[in-house]
Amino acid sequence: MSKRLVLLLAPVLVAATIYAVFTRTWLAKNEAREVEQTAAIRATAAFVEDTFSEPEEVDTPLEDVVEVQILPEIQVSEYPGRRLVVSGRISTADERLAIIGAIEEDVDSAYRVDDQVKLNYQCREFAWMSSIGRIDFSVLEGIRRFELQLSNEGLTVGGRVLGESERSRVGQHFAAVVPNGVTVENAIETTPPPAASLTVWAAPDNTLLLTGLIPEGESTGYVEIAKEAFPNMRIVSDLIEDRFVAKPMWEDRVKEFLPGFLRTVHRASFKIEKGNHVEVEGLAQASVMTDLRRRLSATFPSPRYTVERDLKLGVPTAVVPKTPIDQPASTATGKAQTVAEMVDTMKVYFRSGRSRVSQLRPQEREKLDQLGRQWKKEGFNRKLFVFGFTDRSGDVATNAYFSKNRCENVVSYLEKSFGIDRSYFEIVGTPENHPPETGTPSELRRVEFGWAEEPTQPLISNWSAEVGSSPDRLKPIDPRELLAKVEDITFSSGKVTPALKDREALGNLANAMVLERMTDVVIIYGFSDNKGSWAANRWYTEERCKAVAKELTKVGVPESQIVLRPVLPARPTQPQDDGKPDDEILEEEEGEEPKVNPRRVKLVMMTQEAFQKAEAAVRDTADAEN
Predict the structure, then answer these.
(1) Is-contact 199 172, C-beta < 8 A?
(2) What is the SS3 assignment for 404-433?
(3) In whole angstroms, what is the distance from residue 132 CA to residue 110 CA?
(4) Which distant-in-sequence residues (6+ apart) come within 8 Å of 247 by Cβ?
(5) How far is the C-alpha of 184 from the C-alpha of 173, rounded, in Å?
(6) Which of 322-336, 409-423, 471-485 has the highest mean pLDDT?
(7) Residue that wins the pLDDT comparison between 532 and 575
(8) What is the widest separation between alpha-carbon atoms in the chain?
């Protein structure tokens, strides 16, 4: 039995042993953890006790303790556009409202009060708030760019007034209303009234910039002028309005002159200041330069105005050259054109006050003849619209008459000369709401054709008015470069007037000389073909020299800088056949090579010093021969 009992109790003893071992291990670990936690708690307690324990008392004399105070301070400043900015710091909202309310009640309703006062509850109270209501803030309106500073200790007023009496009046007012103990500092300066000024600059990025100092309420008017001149350009106005600026005497003159100047001058800059000093800069083509100088002198006459000009003669560059007015379209391109190509490019230019085809220049009438011949050759049968445009010299009724009449006459000419049915044309004249054009008068007086009721060709406009144009559309040119283009001017047989292209080149040269203030002498040599009598040759030669000189003097080149030198052969000793006039064509014999046209004028430019030396040398030679 005992052996069986042992076998039964053995598992129980093993389990009890295992339990005892496990329990002992767990108790040992738990005891170690409690020890660690106790040590951490004691360390933390020691750190807190060391950190937050009361500091050691230091004996400090009471009179050495410094008390930091924030004092109230208010600034009232005027900015352009009648804007009052009230800034600074104050202790309570009631004090802020009291000051802002007093200012708004006194000043004119045109002022805009901008409240930028900050509340700071650590500020001391405003010591003399009860006296704020005694201040008449409207006295500040007599001060230009005034600035008022208020504090517990004092009041300071600054700015500029027109006279000493006004300065004293403002100072006395503030001295009378502030309480005793508050100092008043009068920092106002006396200055003369500011003069109005205006600068308008056409920037290369198609922006028109307006700056300057002008009377109050005038900025809108100048911006509208700029928008009228350039409806598609970006207008940036940095104009400063000032109520102390008197209305300038030049206001109406500038508003009359400015639109035309901006439209006709590239890289334009206009500036007027000091009441009468005008500065203008920019590039312009010769076709508008003479009129521009005339209008400048008429609008700002001397000696009342001093005008400083820095205008340069400009020639087109970096653009597709336009067909010259004095050349037919077909000859300008060098190849025959179809009717469709002519419609897209052809312009027929009219003289001022003329509307009949018979009054057209030969090269303009040739354009219509080419159109008529090509029309018959192609059997063209599409409908075209006919547009007529005029310059700005006439009134509305006159321009409308010339517009329709020129179109009618062009259609009648094509019908009578080439048998083209009138039903192919619909006369429009100048379309309604057609945008204003800014080219030269000779460019504006024209007739065009189109495929629809609105013209398909681009508007005529000056380079500076073309939105999106390159800043290099015009470039300056040196007068000596222009001289090379008119160094030799040839004449048609029997003619004493230079051709249109030569007159334009002479105008360019004269404009450049005037703008550069050149004092060089232009010597004009004249030559004849010697085919007529001696008297006829002399007359033709002299008249051609005079005609060239006239083109220079009418632009502004002084006559004292022009010397005429007709070159004539020796007087014949035997009578000549007077039946052979100067206008006989040289190339009359068949088989001869074309000869250089002797009917010409040659231009030579010399400095005054070189010309005087050359004249002296000629006189010395003549004296030696005699």
Answers:
(1) no
(2) HHHHHHHHHHHHHHHCCCHHHEEEEECCCC
(3) 22
(4) 196, 215, 218
(5) 10
(6) 409-423
(7) 532
(8) 188
Which pair of tokens denotes residue 387?
Answer: 């547009």
Residues 92-110 have pLDDT tens digits of: 999 999 999 999 999 988 8
Q: Which residues contact 451 (CB under 8 A, 6 or more apart)?
A: 343, 382, 384, 385
Q: Is the separation of the CB atoms in 259 and 208 below 8 Å?
A: no
Task: Go through the chain and tell me how many residues it has.
Answer: 626
What tokens appear for 347 in the block? Answer: 């312009």
Q: What are phi and psi of 4, to 5 degrees?
A: -70, -40
> Pick from 118, 174, 180: which is nearest to 150 by CA?
174
C-alpha–C-alpha distance, residues 58 and 563, integer Å: 107
In sequence order, the 6+-apart residues with CB closer than 8 A to the CB of 492 are: 499, 599
Q: Are 491 and 528 in contact (CB under 8 A)?
A: no
| 26-43 pLDDT, tens digit each | 666 666 666 666 666 666
> What tokens were used for 306?
């001093």
According to DSSP, the β-strands at 83-90 and 112-119 are parallel
For 280-310, how does the pLDDT look when each residue is reduced to its tens digit (9 = 90+)?
998 888 778 878 888 899 999 999 999 998 8
| Residue corresponding to tokens 């002296």 | 616
In 3D, which of 218, 306, 288 has the Cα closest to residue 464? 288
The owner of tokens 């006189």 is 619
Q: Identify whether the C-beta of residue 227 lies closer than 8 Å to the C-beta of residue 465.
A: no
The rounded distance, in Å, linking the Cα atoms of 144 and 213 is: 13
Adjacency order of strands within the sheet including 347-349? 347-349, 446-450, 384-389, 425-429
Quote the crossing angle between the two packed helices 251-264 and 219-229, to the nearest 10°: 30
pLDDT at 533 over 60: yes
Q: What is the pTM of this model?
A: 0.53
Q: Which burial class, exposed, middle or buried, applies to 26 when counting CB atoms under 10 A from its CB (0-12, 13-18, 19+)?
A: exposed
Cα–Cα distance list, 464 to 205, 467, 469 (Å): 11, 8, 8
Do 513 and 480 meet the contact criterion of CB atoms below 8 Å apart? no
